[in-house]
Amino acid sequence: MSATAAGVPVAAGARGSRPADAAEAGRRVEEVLDGLAATGDRAACAAAEELVRVLMEFYGAGLARLTAGLEPARLTPLLDDVLVGSLLALHDLHPEDVRARIGRVLAAAPQPVELVAFDPDTGAVRLRPAESAGAGGGCGCGGPDVRALEDSFAALVPEVASVELEPAAPARPLLQIGSRPPAAAPARAR
Predict the structure, then answer these.
(1) Dist. CA 50–CA 98, nearest whole Å
(2) pLDDT per residue as tens digits for the range 28-48
(3) Rg of the chain taking only CA atoms, in angstroms
(4) What are the CA-CA distances from residue 171 to residues 25, 135, 141, 156, 178 (Å)?
(5) Where are the domains of the chain?
(6) Which fold has domain 98-165?
(7) What pLDDT band is residue 141 in, cutting at 50, 70 and 90?
(8) φ, ψ for residue 151 (rounded to 5)?
(9) Distance between terminal CA atoms of the chain?
(10) b (16+ CB within 10 A) / e for 75-94
(11) Element (H, E) at 5
């Protein structure tokens, strides 16, 4: 942090910069709100939270008008853009259901993972490394990056509240094929 704005720390180069993705933007908003809360100024905190709420409603209403006028075929290519998909999900405008968006996150994961379960009541997603990936991701670089998955879910599937990673299924034993030891020759009658 290099400067302050009204007593709130501002990251170096943050003034006028744009967050690159939804997860980064969310972290930045939380950072600013936490900084305001640390000042102890309840009126400033309440005003900042109200400002965030009003802007969310404003941008959400604009996005709703834009997407309402698009034919589904024209909207579909936009869903592949992570930022656009995140904004639509954030404002509950994404045309895909929760399971389809979970599938998008898993398909984009750097290491193959598979969905074990999703509990819509708690928002918990249980995952495990895909069988083809093996216990360590198949490349010797470790298993799935849970933090990256959490960020992806936060951006595209805000209904997901937690990500649990189960251990990989144990590897199947390797079947060894070889020759049998020679059978003992039958004893000859003398």
Answers:
(1) 28
(2) 999 999 999 999 999 999 999
(3) 26
(4) 40, 8, 17, 32, 21
(5) 1-12+19-95, 98-165
(6) GMP Synthetase; Chain A, domain 3 (3.30.300)
(7) low
(8) -60, -45
(9) 99
(10) beebbeebebbbbbbbbeeb
(11) strand 3-5
